[in-house]
Amino acid sequence: MFNLSRASQTLFPGETLLKKARSFSSGFLKTKHENNECFVNWILIKDLTGEVEYNLTFPWYASLHRLEHRTYLDQYELQQDLHKKELEHVIKWNDGCQFKDLDFARQKSVECYFAGAAIMFEPEMVQTRLVWARCCVLTTVLDDYFDVGTSVEELRVFVQAVRTWNPKLINGFVLP
Q1: In the record, which residues are listed under signal peptide (predicted)?
Q2: What is the per-residue pLDDT across 124-138, written as a single tens digit (0 to 9) for each?
Q3: Distance between CA atoms of residues 140 and 90, nearest Å
Q4: Which domains does the chain have, with CATH numbers?
């Protein structure tokens, strides 16, 4: 509702649908604000009440965007700290797997983590982001392994070892 209210403030003259949306959303937010019911349980926002009050007081065209950006940085600081710790965890895991020692493998742990964090940003999605990043890193390493020019026989043995979950099948073959 908050985002609908902000979006409806960009209406052009004669736009009746956005005018109705602005009236409805601002009325809804005013009621919630007056009843002290501005809360969200799935997004980490320190002061949703303050954001709603600001939105009701200052329309989009009258707001100071640079100050808003500073406010958002303050609001989401905890979220940034969480993402930083998770990224450090993914990098440490990548180092522990010794993927950096594989000459053929691209190092994509940072890109893999942020690809997941961009769409799964909620604080309770920690495990999902970490699993996403690990799967993405493993996929990249495997893709690079198959692209490096390994012989067809080595690839067949590797695929068979994965299918049967038997790493002993790879004995005698040296990874590139």
Answers
A1: none
A2: 899 999 999 999 999
A3: 14
A4: 2-75 (1.50.10.130), 77-170 (no CATH)
Tell me if residue 75 falls in helix, strand or coil. Answer: helix
At 2, list the tokens. Answer: 């908050």
**Residues 15-31: tens digit of each pLDDT:** 899 899 999 998 998 88
Residue 48 and residue 33 in contact, taking contact as beta carbons nearer than 8 Å = no
Q: What pLDDT, in 10s, does the model give residues 71-84? A: 667 766 778 888 99
| Phi, psi of 165, deg, nearest 5 | 55, 45
How many whole angstroms separate alpha carbon 90 and alpha carbon 116?
12
Asked if 89 and 162 count as a contact pair (C-beta separation under 8 A), the reply is no
Structure tokens at 124: 């309770």
What residue type is 155 in one-letter code?
L
Helix residue ranges, H only, 121-174: 126-147, 152-164
